[in-house]
Amino acid sequence: MHNPVSALGGEMFEGFATIREVGPMGMITLRCKMDEKPLATTLKKLGFSLPDQRRISHGKDRSAGWMSPDELLLILPYADVAATMEGLASGLAKTHHLAADVSDARAMFRIEGEKADQVLAKLCPVDLKTLAPAELRRTRAAQVAAAFWAQDGGYTLVSFRSVAGYVMGILRHAAAKGAEI
Amino acid sequence: MLTLQCPYCGVQADETELSPGYEAHLKRFGPGSTPEEFESYMFARKNPKGVHFERWRHAYGCGKWFLAARDTNTLEVFGTYPAQSSAPPADLIAKIKQKRPDWEGYK
Amino acid sequence: MSTRLQKGGRLIDRSTRAEFTFNGRRLIGHAGDTLASALLANDQMLVGRSFKYHRPRGIVAAGPEEPNALVNLGRADRLEPNQRATTTELYAGLEAASQNHWPSLDFDIGVVNNYLARFLPAGFYYKTFIHPRAAWKHLFEPIIRQSAGLGSAPKETDADRYEFVYAFCDVLIIGGGIAGLQAALTAGQAGKRVILLEQTAHWGGRAVVDGDTVENESAEEWVTSAVDALKTMENVTLRNRCMGAGVYDHGYVLANERLADHTPGDGRPKQRVWRIRAGHIISATGAIERPLSFAGNDIPGVMLAASVRDYVVNYAVSPGDRTVVVTNNDDAYLTAITLVEAGLSVPVVLDARAQADGPLPSRARALGIRVETGRGIASVKGGKRVTGVQICLQAGEGAVMEEIACDAVAMSGGWSPVVHLWSHCGGKLIWSETLSAFVPDSARPPLNHDGSAMVSCVGAAAGVYDPADIIAGTDSDGAATAIVPVWMMPQGAPIGLRSKMWLDYQNDVKVSDVQLAAREGYESVEHTKRYTTLGMATDQGKLSNINGLAVLSQALGAEIPQVGTTTFRPPYTPVTIGALAGEARGEIFQPLRRTPMHDWHDQNGAYWEPVGLWRRPYCYPRAGETHDQAVQREVINTREKLGLLDASTLGKIIVKGPDAGRFLDMLYTNMMSNLAVGKCRYGLMCNEQGFLSDDGVVARIDEDTWLCHTTSGGADRIHGWMEDWLQCEWWDWKVYTANVTEQYAQVAVVGPNARKLLEKIGGMDVSKEALPFMQWADGSLGGFPVRVYRISFSGELSYEIAIPASHGAAFWDMLHREGAEFGAMPYGTECLHVLRAEKGFIMIGDETDGTVTPLDLGLGWAVSKKKADFLGKRGMERTYLADPERWKLVGLETLDGSVLSDGAYAVAPGTNENGQRNTEGRVTSTYYSPTLKKGIAMGLIKNGPDRMGEVVELNKVDGGTVKARIVDAVFFDKEGEKGNA
Ligand SMILES: [Zn+2]
Question: Which of A23, B78, C537, C722 could form a disulfide with C507 if both were Cys (CB 3.0 to 4.6 A apart)?
Fold first, then answer.
């Protein structure tokens, strides 16, 4: 088996905040009504817990993010995706749902440092002060779609893979030394 | 630069996070409809100065379409509600009537 | 002369010298100076030339309202034209050059226009440069371009960085004077999230200059403690050097922060645009002093009275040794007092009013200053500098009573509240007879999203000037600030004087011009503005609008409120384009979508073609090859051996659920529900009007699941289209979709050797029997997990292989490595086009343009007649789409083998009502076919399919025509044997 390659091979940038491309990361788009009974139990069995509206819930090495009233983003180790897809297929066999492996369709970034929030404030039309803990915010970063949440003293941001280079570019620009707000 | 609250995810979304989708509550006319019906569905659009019902999609957010009642003149937003509605909710109608007594209704 | 005073200057640091140049001359200023104050300190009053008459122009103001002192600032990659000297902070090494003159500031040839002034009246351009039409291009425009224009545009790439920041607050206050600070204190103490902006580098506004008393303290002390108090509040953000540029819908405000304008090259962004969403906006933007209209009021040395004070108090700069003060209000007396107290001479205060007995005039008289009431200026003497004034009765016609020598004139016609931000989003104004000014009508504010007032004004912006009132939030002393307006000085001035009274200094609009416009029938202030260019310069009429409006209303015999104001539009002061672009330049101007194989293409010489936001290789030219030659090589190699195409940009959407088949039957014109698992089918999508919108191959994955391929760049649109119908029309249908376009890299392995390569790599059975045409299979190839589709857009034996994107580059590498022995070569989009055109396959966007139906393209076989309904079915039934005369798809073959021009029209006999040749069709795709060694084309021709073999004429770029025969659009392998192999 060949090793998967993330979009930017782990590129890093040190400005007034640190930007790192991380991954490859396992990700599954799961479309399903949140109140379907088997959903919560299946997720639980697979190490996830059902998040509330606009929240991300973290398990041991995996998270479940609320993307829309009928969409979750499951984040997990890349190697566990196939088994999890199988677990979803069997657990939700009788439930109308769609699960798709999107691990390779995404790029993930970490924005770290005391002023990490300023980097996002320059790119996203989002009031970060009113962001709840564990809130997953879908928005745009400059000209592309993005989702982010606060985690481990910084932020984790997810974008589409094809624009990873662009996203790295705008993050570098926003985090450049001397550009602190 | 409007802000509209998405009724699905609750975000007070910036206009740049939304995409517009013209008039709400259009009735689709398919095969078998008269030319007049088809024209009304395809081409006849309201363009009022005042209360208007519109479709918006939370494109850079949860991706859901929703509907909004808005005054095209003052830009006051009376409310937003899910796209899965065949008519505006009664409490929204009441609110608009109270604020705009001369309003003739959404039909 | 203007000079630096020995003492004072609250903003300058005399211990820090800043050397700078003006028109190459080395000058010295101090830290804390503005460029304008430093120029004045060096006796440089003349700073530019006016736009039309090239008259000498001096510094008039001390702030953003300055119309004259515009300079080219910096050089090369930091050159900026039209920078206001009055708002430019001085720094060591600053380089400035005056604008709008040739060959030099002191001697300007364009000034000849000045002597022609009476031939250059209002509307001159409209009246003169009309006939003959040809003269525009060859005579008028070149001359106007040569002599017009403000400053010179930079030619080099901007060396600086810019950025945006999004901010949110309950209360946004714009203006850091007493009123703004007080509003911030109130809101901050109430626990609101507050942002307070001040356009200058300093807090306090006018009060600190004028030495006002605020709450029993000096304004200076009050401001210091207010700012200190605000800084301790966590809920308050203070930004100076940050101009509130515009107010937009729903509390949205743009502000322009000048971070490093005064410290160029220090590594910080030069400017930052704040995109603020505020619950409520308080405009504390102050007021701007009005000039008076007297003859010669544009001669360098004539300045606004309060600005003269600014220079003396803030920068210890005296604009002149002997300054005549001319006014219609008490405030200007403070200028006279300030000058005298600084040891300068004020020969006289000319007050247009009959009486002046307020506290300030009394103080002036007590200091021994000569005060003449009921007097005005008949004319200012001087050329490049004021040398004196002639005094007359304000009530008269300008008979000179006395001439007084002076080198500066300080004028005040009263104050205009800065109502721009109030007005940007529709706040209405009301004319205050007391203040002789437009003030915000608080009964008609701009509205927020909830219908509440979005903006309120405080302080001078609301016409409230007394600090006690501002602090108390009252408006008690309208009487004390009452103004009896003086719109013309003297009031009976004859034409000779009126044609020397400037309203708009930058655009050279005079009282006589506005009066002429009125006589010529211009009644609307908006029309007059455009006709005379009043207020249309870069200062947007901050000084000229009210005076011009008053002159117009008098000329029309109407009241000022009836004539109304022109529209206030953002930005309040000009914002450089770089700031508005923010981060979007260079590499990150626009998102560039890269496939997993992007770097390989780049390293292998790809010539790129943009496809949506993607970049796709157009071809891979080798050393010495033209693009055409590369394309031909790629076509022949693919037809004869093996071509590899990066098809990753193809849209891929999963559609799943119990109602998915039903849903796809509505979406596609043909049937998809009956597609067998494991099979593929080509499908068409139309919009509701029946016009073709997208096409692609659909694969049935399992009982509940389909995978829909869309065109490159169509994926997001089609996914959105699906979601629209599922969410808004058929919301009870059980269908989910997921756009997985980017999850997979996709490679088309195309050509007679395609199977040989895959068999060599091994891992799954790709034989004709195991994987026939239009089927797909999951498996592995060379250890990579793949899904292989037997589909073909070239007519060749072809496998489209999807592989997780993270393996895409490695898989692509392997295909090239292992395929070398079979003649594998990459091919680009142009080769793809030639291959598909040779086969007569349509391309969305080439054969379609939003007005073409599947039937027009001969795709009736893909339009179901059985289905009761699908999107576009009703639209297609419209009578005009059933017209047999419609242009329909055919092949076109030139008789001489040449390649038709893209988009060429088929000409028909006769002409239309515009005298243009009639047409009967057009070319939609045209290529040189290296396979057939001749030009081939597809086109839409009137009733085309019934005219096989007929010859039509198509126009050429050179004006001639070329003959072409109508043929079948399939040029190559008509039986389709190669693809089925
Ligand atoms: Zn939403």
Answer: C537
A3 in any annotated domain: no
Residue B79 CA, ligand 1 centroid: distance in Å: 14
- Chain A partners (3+ C-beta pairs within 8 A): B, C
Separation of B93 CA from ligand 1 center, angstroms? 23
Using the mean position of ligand 1's atoms as its centre, give its distance from the Cα of residue B58 in Å: 5
**pLDDT at C508 exceeding the cut of 70:** yes
User: What confidence score (pLDDT) does residue C34 get?
Assistant: 98
Q: Which of A78, A104, A130 is the last residue of a domain?
A: A104
Domain of B48, CATH number, reads 3.30.2270.10
Q: Which of B8, B17, B63 sits opposite A139 (nearest CB)?
A: B17
Instruction: Find the domain containing B52 and state its range.
Output: 3-99
Chain B interface test: which of C164, C450, C716, C727 (most B C-beta within 10 Å): C727
% of residues, chain B, pLDDT over 70:
100
Segment A159-181 shows an average pLDDT of 97
Q: Are C875 and C688 in contact (CB under 8 A)?
A: yes
**How many residue pairs from chains A and B have C-beta atoms closer than 8 A?**
33
* A7 located within any domain: no
Nearest residue on chain B to A54, alpha-carbon basis: B9
Q: Rounded mean pLDDT of chain C?
A: 94
Domain check: are A74 and A100 in the same one? yes
Which residues of C sit within 8 Å Cβ distance of B? 248-252, 277, 447-451, 688-689, 720, 723-724, 727-729, 731, 868-869, 873-875, 877-878
Interface test with A, best of C161, C166, C274 (most A CBs within 10 A): C166
Q: What is the pLDDT of residue C344?
A: 97
The answer to ipTM > 0.90 is yes
Query: What band does A2 get if pLDDT is binned at 50, 70 and 90?
Result: confident
Can you give the CATH number for the domain in which A42 is found? Answer: 3.30.70.1520
Q: Quick one: DSSP state of residue C157? A: P
Q: Which H or E run contains C398? A: none
Q: pTM to 2 decimals?
A: 0.95
Give the length of chain A: 181
C216, burial (CB in 10 Å: exposed 0-12, middle 13-18, buried 19+): exposed
User: How many domains would you assign to chain B?
Assistant: 1
Q: Residue C138: pLDDT above 80?
A: no
| B63 Cα–ligand 1 center, Å | 6
In chain B, positions 16-35, which contact chain A (CB-CB < 8 Å)?
A: 16-17
Structural domain including A56 reads 26-104
Subunits with 3+ C-beta pairs closer than 8 A to C: A, B
How far is the C-alpha of C376 from the C-alpha of C555, rounded, in Å? 21
C952 sits in which H/E element: strand C951-955
Which among C588, C594, C737 has CB closest to A173? Answer: C588
Say if residue A30 is in the same domain as residue A100: yes
Q: Do A69 and A130 belong together in one domain?
A: no
Q: What is the DSSP letter of C873?
A: H
Region C470-477: mean pLDDT is 78
The whole-angstrom distance between A58's CA and the closest CA on chain B is 20
Residue type, C230: L
Element (H, E) at C584: none
Alpha carbon distance, N-terminus to C-terminus of chain A: 47
Give B99's contacts in chain C (Cβ within 8 Å): 451
Both tokens of B6, joined, read 């998405």
Which residues contact residue C487 at a Cβ distance below 8 angstroms, ignoring those fewer than 6 apart? C293, C547, C550, C551, C554
Structural domains of chain C, ranges and CATH numbers in brackets? 160-286+414-479 (3.50.50.60), 603-647+747-823 (3.30.1360.120), 884-981 (2.40.30.110)
Same-domain status, A100 and A113: no
